[in-house]
């Protein structure tokens, strides 16, 4: 416990967790990632888990039993029914549903006046993201998007390097990556079916690759996208020796790529894969007028880095490379994601991962899907909210 509170102090000078003032929390969607939310909430001294729901009957009840938490209300037929239960007096919800249910659950929760921690990706389409942002604004509540790599000291370092001016003006970014074989089906098909996930590799790991670099350069607005998404492995029954029937269910994407023009003259070149016939399609790189940064790829793109960052500069006419050692992150990233969300909700301070930025991440993912369907470049139009 002490380490979480220390991390909290480091991020918020004046912060002291008031454990007398408990936050009343509920979980919407009690699947795999909800386990990580619960594990972190249970470490917080100022949280009371009071309710949870899942579309699958009995799943929420079994979930809380597994976590050894008693007295949690779970007898709801839908998230709407739970949100309408005024006896709960909810402060916060974690939305841990599959992607297609992110927008309705986040919007309904905000409309009910509840602070929301929404899992990544923000949603599926740009139109949904706009509606989520409108609901956030109308509610005056906190909406944070679940990008826990933001709390990784290496991710912070990438942003610090850009902000230090060492790279000069950034004009080109390459990002993405993927897995040689890594379609996520160990717990069923909610990640690969269009009706539940909406986006495949693009939404699952593509959003992390984008956030890593876009957050570092201050989230410039995307202006145009030309993109492609496709299925090259997921529809092959041989890919799943134990579940050949998954091949027919695979209706999202296992590969996606895009070329994006952004405000400030920055070009973004992006690709992501759940499966591919190579170890990596390349490291992430940020090119600036005074320096370049290499962010080594990993074999499981999930928002971590694959080795030390390398900063390339010309010093007194000599081409140099500086190795930035991998930084330890002494606190759990998930714990920080939960703690900073609670902190913002309690104090009415800005969300740690702001939807007003992540809408640009979503606009790129959604823009790739639209451009791919149309077969040409599209302009990204985001209304004033
Ligand atoms: N941050 C991370 O590290 C991380 C890791 C894995 C997954 N995720 C994200 O978390 C989300 C869920 O992933 P998962 O692996 O837990 O999926 P999952 O399929 O295991 O669980 C989702 C659950 O939500 C339930 N659900 C869907 N709509 C609902 C609704 N309206 N009301 C109540 N319950 C509803 C489903 O029945 C299911 O039990 C995805 O969006 C995924 O991208 C994040």
Give structural notes.
The structure is a single chain. It is built from 11 helices and 14 strands. The protein is of the alpha/beta class and 385 residues long. It folds into 2 domains: 2-148 and 333-353, NAD(P)-binding Rossmann-like Domain (Rossmann fold, 3-Layer(aba) Sandwich), CATH 3.40.50; 153-328, 2-Layer Sandwich (Dihydrodipicolinate Reductase, domain 2). A hairpin with a 3-residue loop joins β8 and β9 (266-273). Nicotinamide-adenine-dinucleotide (NAD) binds at residues 28-34, 53-56, 59, 79, 96-99, 101, 105, 119-120, 146, 148, 187, 190, 204.
Put the structure in a nutshell.
By secondary structure, the protein is an alpha/beta fold. The chain has helices at residues 2-11, 32-41, 59-66, 79-84, 102-111, 126-139, 153-164, 201-216, 246-249, 333-347, 355-374; strands spanning 23-28, 47-53, 92-95, 115-118, 143-145, 170-178, 222-230, 255-262, 266-273, 284-288, 291-295, 309-315, 318-324, 378-379.
Features:
single chain, 385 residues, alpha/beta, Rossmann fold, Dihydrodipicolinate Reductase, domain 2, 2 domains, nine-stranded mixed β-sheet, 32% helix, 22% strand, disordered N terminus, binds nicotinamide-adenine-dinucleotide
């Amino acid at each position: 416990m002490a380490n979480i509170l220390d991390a909290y102090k480091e991020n918020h000078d004046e912060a002291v967790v008031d454990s007398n003032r408990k936050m009343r929390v509920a979980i919407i969607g009690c699947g795999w990632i909800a386990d990580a939310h619960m594990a972190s909430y249970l470490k917080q001294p100022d949280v009371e888990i009071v309710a949870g729901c899942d579309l699958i009957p009995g799943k929420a009840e079994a979930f809380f039993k597994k976590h050894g938490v008693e007295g949690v209300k779970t007898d709801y037929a839908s998230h709407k029914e739970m949100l309408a239960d005024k006896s709960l007096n909810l402060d916060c919800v974690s939305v841990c549903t599959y992607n297609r249910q992110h927008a309705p659950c986040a919007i309904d929760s905000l409309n009910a006046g509840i602070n929301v921690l929404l899992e990544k990706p923000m949603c599926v389409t740009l139109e949904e993201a706009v509606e989520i942002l409108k609901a956030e604004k109308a509610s005056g509540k906190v909406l944070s998007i679940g990008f826990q790599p933001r709390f990784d000291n290496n991710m912070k370092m990438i942003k610090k390097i850009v902000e230090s001016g060492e790279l000069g003006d950034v004009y080109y970014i390459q990002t993405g990556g993927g897995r040689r074989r890594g379609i996520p089906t160990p717990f069923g098909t909610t990640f690969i079916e269009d009706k539940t996930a909406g986006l495949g590799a693009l939404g699952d790991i593509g959003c992390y690759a984008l956030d890593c670099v876009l957050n570092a350069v201050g989230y410039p607005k995307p202006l145009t996208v030309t993109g492609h998404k496709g299925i090259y492995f997921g529809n092959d029954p041989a890919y799943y020796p134990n579940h050949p029937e998954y091949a027919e269910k695979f209706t999202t994407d296992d590969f996606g790529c895009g070329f994006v023009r952004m405000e400030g003259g920055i070009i973004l070149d992006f690709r992501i894969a759940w499966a591919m016939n190579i170890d990596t399609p390349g490291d992430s790189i940020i090119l600036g007028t005074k320096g370049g940064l290499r962010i080594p790829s990993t074999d499981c793109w999930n928002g971590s880095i694959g080795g030390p960052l390398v900063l390339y500069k010309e010093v007194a006419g000599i081409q140099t490379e500086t190795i930035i050692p991998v930084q330890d992150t002494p606190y759990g990233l998930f714990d920080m994601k939960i703690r900073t969300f609670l902190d913002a909700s309690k104090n009415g301070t800005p969300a740690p991962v702001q939807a007003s930025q992540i809408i640009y991440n979503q606009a790129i993912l959604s823009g790739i899907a639209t451009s791919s369907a149309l077969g040409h470049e599209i302009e990204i139009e985001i209304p004033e909210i």
